[in-house]
Amino acid sequence: MILRAALCQTCCPATAAEGLAHVAPLVRRGAAEGAQLILTPEGTNFLQRDRAKLGPLLAAPEDDVCVQGLRALAAELSVWIVIGSALVKRPDGTAANRQFVVAPDGSIRATYDKLHMFDVKLPTGETARESELYTPGDAAITVDAAGARLGLTICYDVRFPALHRALALAGAEILTSPAAFTRPTGAAHWDILLRARAIETGSFVLAAAQGGHHADGRGTYGHSIAIGPWGEILGQRADDEPGVLTVDLDLDAVARARAAIPALVNARAFTGPVPGFSV
Hints:
By secondary structure, the chain is of the alpha/beta class. It has seven helices and 16 strands. It has helices at about 15-30, 50-55, 65-75, 160-170, 185-200, 250-260, 265; strands at about 1-10, 35-40, 80-90, 95-100, 110-115, 120, 125-130, 140-145, 150, 175, 205, 210-215, 220, 225, 235, 245-250.
């Protein structure tokens, strides 16, 4: 089976309404190019790393104009849309970095809250403390969409192979990896990490990215990429400008890759190492 997917690369503005106005034309372009599955980046509605400024921007998903606008667009265009993530308010009042899988009738078929929080001080001196902004999720999620099974991840999750393995063992054929990668780590690690996750699991990896300079002061790497289950790059944007990357996925390639390198079934349980033990 061949599935056409479109990855939307954005430089999202500062509010959810502006975010929808920015991404909607890219979604329409992907649909016009024949995509049945359209993916957007992390922080599709907006990005904001200042805690004081984040709070007033947050809305519950049912009140977020970008989430609701993309649901309506999915129904209008009769396509699946994976909102890479939207920053939304949880019922307890805290924030979530949440992915939404929207069906062609506009219904939300699955959501996933980012598991791993990016808490770091970079060599450039820039710091990030996502755990101060968002409540992490606690569950890995797969969902059937557009004739394939998707395994959902977000950005920093790419550095945790066990999550991707669990998704593949649960039948995921396509791993989503929407991101707002920093420029230094993007240049050093983006392609390598994503290709490794594809090779280890014999899965497609679709990574729609933010790119450019944002209203909150951050710079993101862009270079949205689609990777096949053998680790081959099926397509990649060469820049951090807004745009669309459209690729065709031969879903039968998943079974071929997993048969050729059966790492998912060859793995064995083991004990140790014992901390502090030496010979």
